[in-house]
Design goal:
This is Serine hydrolase. By secondary structure, the chain is of the alpha+beta class. The chain contains eleven helices and 21 strands.
């Protein structure tokens, strides 16, 4: 990380809406006029958590309680007020306005604006800053997404070793929900990380051996690897998204807040008498089973000594210490969500908030697999992925999707999240991402446009 000269302040923010929590936090303002938050994760919880974001204004994001929807906003300080902030030698009080701006939520948006009281106390500190992101308008390749008005989109280029060469983004400082990208960045990453450093083949352990609530005898035959691959053999329907979008999944899994409620639903799916191996059936509850088994295994020391890892009994802290910190993710990324009870069970398959730079850093980690966790082999072997019933051009393995271009018959690995979130691995050195809330995951035209651009660059 770089160190920039900055003025650092302790802030207290009091909004005129009861839904927005009163916040005490720290922020730095560089000589170039950019604000950077210094606190990790979200403050407050219900109905919204609050976090500041980097940018030319005091930007913030609200995260919906028990969900992954994000609502971005800005606090407007006049030029005179910003100068007052820089010149302050003691606590000052400012009255400012705020408004919600961009929102990434497929089912809800708010037209909120009003007044906020800002109390600022100058401090002394240095400021760690993540690498700069270049505006997309300055990129040598201008992808044209098929989606109308996406929240943010962009692309990144690396060298052969995975070092970032360039990242171009339409909105580099906006907060975005990861939704089911978390299945890769949280659940799969944690499972493969623990497997890599354990003497135990943890993915071969049964669900029942780590989750006593799964009482059906059939869960003894279902492994953690099966849950990672969405092939538990426990389901109601194989039709695409039938289990995932069922009323029972929504009411008894997504909307409930406690671990007891979520695990009850996750364990309730009946075993099906189907050909072995089990078919692919997409269920966020399966990822919850995996995350629960991993967290239980850590807490009960079932995985033995994890040599070479900063080990922790909490699944989120294990990721923060061993992946987030080395990747130098933003404070916002330290926001892995969990159940609202004493166990605080990590959801695993959703509940992560990121800046575009964080998304690219985690995607690059998957793409280049610097810790040799197995992601590189997964990306390179679509032939080992499971066909998706009813769609011969789609496959799935270990949280990663594969799409076959009918024109070239080439398989493209990609990540997919609720509402219209995609990360496409275009080749070994380029990736493309888009976040929207229009339930539109198309990217074929972007791939073909990228191929045309690469052809133009060829000697």
């Amino acid at each position: 990380m770089m160190l920039l000269l900055a003025s650092v302040f302790a802030l207290q923010l009091n909004f005129d809406r009861a839904e927005i929590p009163t916040v005490e936090t720290r922020v730095a303002r560089t000589e170039a006029g950019q604000f950077y938050p210094l606190e990790k994760g979200f403050q407050g919880d219900k109905p919204f958590g609050f976090a500041l974001q980097p940018g030319a204004e005091l930007s913030f994001v609200l995260r919906e309680f028990n969900a992954n929807c994000l609502h971005n906003g800005r606090i407007h300080l006049s030029t005179e007020q910003q100068q007052q902030l820089l010149d302050a030698s003691a606590t000052i009080q400012l009255s400012a306005t705020y408004a919600l701006t961009e929102q990434t939520c497929a089912y809800e948006s708010f037209d909120w604006q009003g007044e906020v009281q800002v109390q600022a106390t100058p401090l002394q500190d240095d400021l760690p800053v993540t690498p700069a992101v270049t505006p997309l308008r300055d990129a040598p390749w201008q992808p044209q997404p098929q989606q109308q008005q996406p929240t943010v989109y962009g692309w990144a280029q690396t060298d052969a070793d995975g070092k970032l060469i360039a990242h171009y983004s339409s909105q580099p400082h906006i907060a975005v929900p990861a939704y089911s990208l978390s299945k890769t960045f949280i659940a799969a990453a944690a499972a493969l990380l623990i497997e890599r450093h354990s003497v135990t083949e943890i993915l071969a352990l049964s669900i029942a051996s780590l989750i006593p609530e799964c009482e059906q005898a059939s869960w003894q035959r279902t492994t953690l690897r099966d849950a990672l691959n969405m092939r538990t053999g426990h389901y109601h329907q194989t039709t695409a998204s039938a289990d995932e979008s069922a009323e029972a999944m929504i009411n008894d899994f997504f909307l409930v807040t406690s671990h007891a409620e979520k695990i009850r639903h996750a364990c309730s799916y009946p075993a099906q008498q189907s050909a072995s191996p089990a078919p692919f059936v997409y269920q966020s509850s399966a990822t919850y089973l995996l995350a629960t088994a991993l967290q239980t295994g850590l807490q009960q020391n079932r995985f033995g000594e994890l040599e070479g890892l900063h080990s922790d009994r909490r699944l989120d802290q294990l990721l923060y210490d061993n992946l987030w910190d080395p990747l130098q993710l933003s404070p916002l990324a330290y926001s892995i969500d969990s159940t609202k009870d004493a166990r605080a069970q990590i959801w695993g398959g959703y509940g992560l908030s990121l800046l575009p730079g964080d998304l690219v850093a985690l995607a690059r980690f998957v793409q280049h697999d610097p810790m040799e966790l197995g992601f590189a082999e997964i990306l390179a072997r679509p032939d080992l992925a499971t066909p998706v019933p009813g769609n011969e051009s789609l496959r799935y393995r270990a949280s990663i999707w594969f799409w076959q271009d009918p024109a070239s018959e080439q398989w493209y690995p990609f990540l997919s999240g609720y509402g219209g979130i995609i990360v496409v691995f275009l080749d070994s050195r380029h990736l493309y991402y888009l976040v929207s809330d229009q339930h539109d995951h198309r990217f074929a035209d972007v791939i073909r446009d990228f191929q045309r651009w690469q052809t133009e660059l060829a000697p």
